[in-house]
From TrEMBL:
Single GO term (MF): DNA binding
All residue ranges annotated as the Conserved hypothetical protein CHP02679 N terminus domain in the record: 35-279
Lineage: superkingdom: Bacteria
Native source species: Paenibacillus uliginis N3/975
Transmembrane portions of the chain: none
Regions annotated as coiled coil: none
Domain spans labelled DUF2399: 291-458
UniProt xrefs under SUPFAM superfamilies: DNA topoisomerase IV, alpha subunit
Lineage per the UniProt record: Bacteria, Bacillati, Bacillota, Bacilli, Bacillales
Pfam families: DUF2399, DUF3323
Entry GO CC: chromosome
Name of the featured protein: TIGR02679 family protein
C-alpha cells in the first residue's frame, strides 16, 4: 500500500498536472466536497498532451495550448479511484503532507480553536483567582465583557481576532482580564502593594504590576489596545446603566477620548511627555519660551484671547523667530509684556501635533473663535501631512503661511534633496492638494530653514504695526 501511494505521488507530481489539480483542490474547498466543475486554460504543449492522455475519450475535442478545459470533480474522483484507489482529499494529503479541508471544515476548526482560546484563558484565570470569568461578581462588574467578546459582541474583538489569526491572543487576553480584575475587584490590594495613596494608577505602573513589563499596555502593543477597548466597552455599559453620567456639556474633543477612557477607569494617562513650546504673553519665562505639558494646559483656567497662533513643527525656525522678536523689541526699548493683549502667539509642536498642542489650540479657539491658525512647515511629505492634519482638525480656522506652491518653487534648486519614491507616491495620491502635486512633479524637498527671511519679514512687520514703530 505504501508503494501504491508513492507511485501516485510520483505520477501526480508531474508539473503538467499542477494547473488542473490546483483548480480541483480549490473547487473542492469552496464547494465543500465533490461538487461543481474545475475550469482551467491549458498553458503548454506538455500540459495539453498530459491532459489528453489522462482524460482520453472523456474530452470531446482536441486539447491544445489556450484550450479551456472544464471537468466535473466527480470525473476526477472516478479517475483517482480507478487508477490508485484514492479520493481527492487523500491525493492532496499525499502531495502536500497536510489534510485537504473544505471551507466549512476550516471554519468549524477555527470556531473550535476560538472557543478553546477562551476556555484556556478562563482556566488560567480560575487557577490564579479561584473564580471564573463567567459566573461571578467580576463578570457583573465588567458587564460580561469576556463572554460577549467570545461571541464577537464586545469592543476589542478585532484585536483578539487578528492575534488569533496569527496563532496567538491568549497571553494578551489573559493580561487584559487580569488588569480588569485588579482595577475592578482588588484595586486596594494593588494600590497597597504599589504604595499608591491617590485615587488613580499610572498606566505603566499598572502594566508592570500585571505583566512585569511597563510597556505591555502601551497603545502600540496589541495588549494595550485590547485593554483600552475593554475599558471603553465597560465605560459605555456604565453610561447605559446610569452609573456613569453622560454630560453633553462636558464633552471633550475627539483626540482626548483615549485619555478620558483611561481616566474614567481610574488610570492616569501620560500627561507629562505630551508637550509643546509657546512664546507668548502669559506663557513665557522672561524672554525664554515655555514648555507646556498636557497637565499644565488642562489645569489652566484663564486663557488669553490671542488674535492668531503662528504654528511651526520645526524648533529651529520657531527659535529663530523668537530670537528676532527679542532683538527687535530690545531695539525699540520695549518688552514682550508691552505688546497688545491679543498679540499672536508663536507655537512649536516639534513634529506632529501631540495632545498638548491640540488641547492648547482648542482652548484658544474656544476663548476667541475668530483666532486664526497660521501654519508653516517643511516642504516634504511629512510637512504636507502635518499641514493636512492641522487643516482637518481645526476646519475653517487654518491658513497656510508661506507654505504654498509659489513659495516652494521660489526656493527650489537643483541641489535640493530628492524625495524618495515612496514619499513621491504618497504626494501623488493627494491630487486635490496643489502643493503636494507640485512637489511630486518637481521631486525635491525644500526645508523651512530656506524661507526664514520671508517669515521674519512678515513677523517683524506684524510687530511694527502692533507697537506702531
Amino acid at each position: 500500500m505504501v508503494h501504491y501511494r508513492k507511485t501516485a505521488k510520483q505520477y501526480y507530481s508531474d508539473p503538467s498536472f499542477s494547473n488542473l489539480l490546483d483548480a480541483v483542490f480549490r473547487k473542492y474547498r469552496g464547494q465543500n466536497g465533490v461538487k461543481g466543475n474545475a475550469k482551467i486554460t491549458v498553458g503548454t504543449t506538455e500540459e495539453a498532451s498530459r491532459l489528453q492522455d489522462f482524460f482520453g475519450t472523456r474530452l470531446t475535442r482536441r486539447v491544445r495550448p489556450g484550450t479551456e478545459v472544464e471537468v466535473h470533480l466527480s470525473v476526477i474522483a472516478e479517475e483517482l479511484e480507478r487508477g490508485y484507489k484514492l479520493t481527492i482529499p487523500e491525493l492532496y494529503e499525499i502531495l502536500n503532507d497536510e489534510p485537504l479541508l473544505t471551507n466549512m471544515e476550516q471554519k468549524e476548526i477555527r470556531e473550535m480553536k476560538w472557543l478553546q482560546l477562551f476556555d484556556q484563558v478562563n482556566s488560567k484565570f480560575e487557577n490564579l483567582f479561584k473564580t471564573n470569568l463567567y459566573n461571578s461578581v467580576f463578570s457583573e462588574e465588567i458587564y460580561n465583557w469576556f463572554n460577549r467578546l467570545k461571541g464577537g459582541d464586545a469592543s476589542g474583538y478585532g484585536v483578539v481576532k487578528n492575534l488569533f489569526r496569527e496563532g496567538g491572543g491568549g497571553d494578551e487576553l489573559f493580561q487584559c482580564v487580569k488588569a480588569l480584575w485588579f482595577l475592578c475587584i482588588e484595586r486596594e490590594v494593588m494600590f497597597q502593594k504599589k504604595g499608591i495613596s491617590v485615587a488613580w494608577i499610572r498606566l505603566p505602573i499598572l502594566a508592570e504590576f500585571v505583566t512585569l513589563d511597563p510597556h505591555a499596555f502601551d497603545w502600540k502593543q496589541p495588549g494595550g489596545r485590547l485593554l483600552w477597548y475593554a475599558l471603553r466597552d465597560i465605560n459605555n455599559q456604565r453610561i447605559k446603566n446610569g452609573i456613569n453620567v453622560y454630560n453633553q456639556h462636558l464633552m471633550l474633543p475627539n483626540f482626548m477620548e483615549k485619555r478620558q477612557v483611561y481616566r474614567n477607569s481610574g488610570i492616569m494617562d501620560d500627561d507629562i511627555s505630551s508637550n509643546m513650546l509657546i512664546f507668548a504673553k502669559d506663557f513665557m519665562y522672561s524672554s525664554s519660551p515655555r514648555t507646556l505639558n498636557l497637565r499644565e494646559i488642562e489645569e489652566c483656567e484663564d486663557w488669553p484671547e490671542y488674535s492668531a497662533l503662528y504654528v511651526f513643527e520645526n524648533p529651529s525656525v520657531f527659535s529663530f523667530l523668537m530670537d528676532e522678536t527679542i532683538h527687535f523689541l530690545n531695539g525699540t526699548g520695549l518688552s514682550y509684556e508691552q505688546l497688545p493683549e491679543n498679540f499672536p502667539a508663536l507655537v512649536c509642536t516639534s513634529g506632529q501635533l501631540r495632545d498638548a498642542s491640540k488641547h492648547f489650540i482648542e482652548n484658544c479657539l474656544k476663548t476667541n473663535p475668530r483666532c486664526v491658525i497660521y501654519y508653516s512647515g517643511d516642504f516634504d511629505r511629512y510637512g504636507v501631512e502635518i499641514a493636512s492634519g492641522v487643516n482637518k482638525m481645526f476646519i475653517g480656522a487654518v491658513e497656510m503661511w508661506k507654505m504654498d506652491s509659489d513659495t516652494y518653487i521660489r526656493y527650489l534648486n537643483r541641489d535640493s534633496l530628492l524625495l524618495s519614491n515612496h514619499d513621491r507616491k504618497v504626494l501623488e495620491s493627494k491630487p486635490d492638494n496643489e502643493l503636494a502635486s507640485t512637489m511630486a512633479d518637481k521631486r525635491r524637498k525644500v526645508y523651512q530653514e530656506s524661507i526664514t527671511f520671508e517669515l521674519k519679514n512678515d513677523w517683524i512687520e506684524l510687530l511694527r504695526l502692533s507697537v506702531k514703530v
